[in-house]
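@channel anyone free to eyeball this complex?
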Amino acid sequence: MPESWFMLTVVGADRPGIVARLARDLFVAGAYLGEASMLRLGGNFTIMLMVRGEFTADSLRAALSVAAAELGLHLHVDAIDGDLHQHVVPDVRVHVHGADRAGIVAEVAEALVAVGFNILTLDSDVAGLHAAPIYVMQIEGRAADGIEVVEAALSPLRANGIDVRVDSVETLVG
Amino acid sequence: MAALDVLVWPDERLRRISEPVDRFDDELRGFVEDLEETRQAGPSAVGIAAPQVGRHQRVVILDCSITRKPVANHGRLVLINPEILSWEGHALGREGCLSVPDYTGNVLRAERIILRAYDLAGESHEYDMNGFEARAAQHEIDHLDGRVFLDRVVSRHTDVFRRKQR
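replying in thread with the prediction:
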C-alpha cells in the first residue's frame, strides 16, 4: 500500500496523558507525524496533526479507537494532499480587543479580506471578569497592498468600540 | 570574492564555539569580503556570522539599513570579537536564519544592548543598539557561541498572551 497523508483531528475533555497515548499508538501503527498544533480551548483538549503512513483513513481510525474510547476523545480523519514546507512568513500583525460581543471576528475578517489580506494565524482569548469579559484577538498575515491599506480598512471599527492596532512584522534573517 | 557554502542545521559545526580573532590582516579582510558576498547571495539577510560558513572565528557582519520598514541602525558593521556589555528590557520578535531554511519563530531578546567590538583595522568601538539592530546582533553573537535561534524559540501562545491567573 502506498503512503498517504491524513489530517487527524482530536477533541475531548482535557486530561494528562492524551498526547503521549496518541503518539505511542500512532508510532505503533507505523505513522510518521508532520506539522501539528495542539491547544487547550476552554478546558478542552484539541489537536490537529498531519499523519503519514501506509494505511487508510479507516485503519488509522481503528488504530486509535481504543485510546479514543478510554480517554473520551472524538477523532476525525481526512485524507489530504500532504505537503510540508508551505510556510508563508507574515508581514502584518493585527491586535484586536474590546468588550466581548458577537460579530467581532466577522467584522475584522471581512474588513481584512476586502483589502486582500491573507490570514495565516488567528488566536483569540476571552479574558477579564466574568461579568465584563473582554475579547482579545491576534491575527498575522500577508497584506497584499501594504500595511497602510490594512490600517485604513480597520480604523472604522474603532467607532464600534473595538480597539485595533496594526503593526508590521519584520522577520530578521541572519 | 566568492560566495561560500552556508552550513545548514543540524550540521554539528554550527554547535562549535568560535575563537577570538588575533590577527587583523589581509587574509581576514579577504574572508570578510567573501562572507559579505555570501550574505548578499542568499535571502535578504541583515547579518551573517563566520561559523555559518564553517570558519570558527568571532566575526560578524551586520547591516540593518536594508529592512522593509526603516529601523534605527549604525549602517553596515563588521564586528570582530563582539562582546555585549549590558542588556536592557526584552521583546519578542520573529527570526529566521540562513542556516535554518524554511522556518521562522518567535524569540525573546534584550531590547537594548551596549556592544563592544573591533573593526577590520583592529580599532575598538562601542555601539548603543536598540530594537531590531540589537536583536540582529544578539542573533549573530549566538552563532559565535554555537547557538541557533531554534534554541531560543518561545511560544506565541504562552509568551504573547499572559492571562491573569484567577
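from a first look: Residues 26-41 of chain B form the longest helix (16 residues).
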